[in-house]
Model the fold of this input.
Amino acid sequence: MASTTKKTAQRQGFKTGEFIVYPAHGVGQITAIEEQNVAGHTLELLVIVFEKDKMTLRVPVAKIASVGMRKLGDPDAVTKALETVRGRPRVKRTMWSRRAQEYEAKINSGDLIAISEVVRDLYRSDAQPEQSYSERQLYEAALDRMAREIAAVNKCSETEATKQIEQTLEKSPNRPKAPTAADAAGGSDDQEEAA
Done:
């Protein structure tokens, strides 16, 4: 009995069948807990499947903390993440290469709020200029990570989660709105008067 309790403590409460967040890969599911003998030592491994990436990882229980693996966020964390994307985008005036590294670090941190900040900062509405290829790639990576976690927490499809995030982004009061036909007509009159 005591050894079972000890093993559960080492696993930090992670159980088979549970969805988790692995910083470098996003949401995965623990499908099994295996034991392997390596150089005379018995290692306990969590088998984690990332279905979307068709990938399986085996993480030694002793490495759970050092790799930054965590349990899924709760509904409050999802609410906070959606509030974050509704906020005003913060774009630093540094070189793109430096910003890209910061965005990448936030995406790979596995932190839902940090990921939602990347989604907020890189989102482009129809009223804004086009994104560069690398901006688009980072935006889609962050959106995908965020949607996967929201889908797992809310028990909905990733498509529904993505739609929820994008609708929240579009409703943000801090976003430039797409010009309407009336704006376009009004704009040309002003130019003629000025000329």
